[in-house]
Amino acid sequence: MKKLIIASTSTIHGSGYLEYLLPTLADFFAKTTTILFIPYARPSGITYEAYTEIVKKAFAKIDKKAIGIHEFDNPKEAIQKAEAIFTGGGNTFELVNQLYKKGVISDLKEVVEKGTPYLGTSAGSNICGVTMMNTNDMPIVYPPSFDTLSFIPFNINAHYLDPNLNSKHMGETRETRIKEFHVFNTTPVLGLREGSWLEVEDDLIILKGILSARLFQPNKTPVELKMDTVIKL
Amino acid sequence: MKKLIIASTSTIHGSGYLEYLLPTLADFFAKTTTILFIPYARPSGITYEAYTEIVKKAFAKIDKKAIGIHEFDNPKEAIQKAEAIFTGGGNTFELVNQLYKKGVISDLKEVVEKGTPYLGTSAGSNICGVTMMNTNDMPIVYPPSFDTLSFIPFNINAHYLDPNLNSKHMGETRETRIKEFHVFNTTPVLGLREGSWLEVEDDLIILKGILSARLFQPNKTPVELKMDTVIKL
């Protein structure tokens, strides 16, 4: 029984870390005492220790204990024995790089497929897709592969942003970038706006949160999916 | 005698393709009749043919002929024999991917180091740095390496954007991303705003155009470089 929450962001504007998600997480982690935290994405290059402290404080608010994977001698074993897992945001290239280097990709895939509850935010959500090819992050390290965990049959574009029609900047919009992706790839992409998330139970994928999401498929006009939509591809 | 123009963008707001650069290019390519165009970056997934047509029209305005590298049987030979070379913008991952796949990285490096004039815009400028790790593009394909041509001893962040202080979006600013890069890498990064470019003659690198550029070095406060600054690192 696969069970995931895949969130666009950990933090919405004007609110604390994970704050908007805590009621949902209290329910999602109802049977969980301790959550294994994977800090590999290191937002702004923060240390594993400092990142884990932030997460420990947030989860303490719903009486959960978080432990960083770096606090274990053996990360594979830590994943295999975890009650629940949270992978936080940061740089997706470095996250994927470390997951491969530490040899834990297959463990993570195995336990989550078997039912260990998984929460991802931002980079931690990107890796739930087929590949990390729709990340917005800068390629600051070279991972051995862009292939990720395929918990869902499409890719995530976290922090999805609508085009700014007033901008004089000539860089590509998010939609242009995703359309470019579909010149070279067929995997559908879900643009998940900040404040929205997916609830996944096995093959049932439901859009939650306060905003619609934008689904991109090759050779099709993008569509807006409303809150509570069951996503079928 | 290395001779390059490394521009942030091909196009500035409200102006035609390469238009703002044409007076500079007429001078830069004064002794050149024919320019070899490398269309591998395929902006929005446009075909090599369609992209080359746009470039041919732009260069016709200054009486230069552009020929796409795909019009030659042997791309290595095309580079070796080129009078001058222009690599256009688009997706840096796909550009670098094709340069490696077609085996032309070493040829491009060799002829430009020996004096074949080179123009890059956007992705075509990113590859002039040590690595492509400061691209803003989406990783829509997996290139065999992020290493690039090292024509200059630092990396380029093209289309550099200042933080939008009014934004409620929680995604990283460009400055945050470049600082993250410096947690893992020591190569300096030049944030080149749209409308600015570098003129390179051997080791002399001068900032040109209408805006200052922002230089990021590890463990240093970023600095603004004014127009006409000679960049020394």
UniProtKB/TrEMBL annotation, chains A, B:
The keyword Hydrolase is annotated on this UniProt entry: yes
Keywords carried by this UniProt record: Hydrolase, Protease, Serine protease
Pfam families named in the record: Peptidase_S51
One of the GO BP terms on file: proteolysis
UniProt superkingdom: Bacteria
Entries under InterPro entries matching the protein: Class_I_gatase-like (IPR029062), Peptidase_S51 (IPR005320)
Entry GO MF terms: serine-type peptidase activity
Family the UniProt entry places it in: Belongs to the peptidase S51 family.
PANTHER family associated with the record: ALPHA-ASPARTYL DIPEPTIDASE, PROTEASE S51 ALPHA-ASPARTYL DIPEPTIDASE
Name the UniProt record assigns to this protein: Dipeptidase E
Species lineage: Bacteria, Pseudomonadati, Bacteroidota, Flavobacteriia, Flavobacteriales
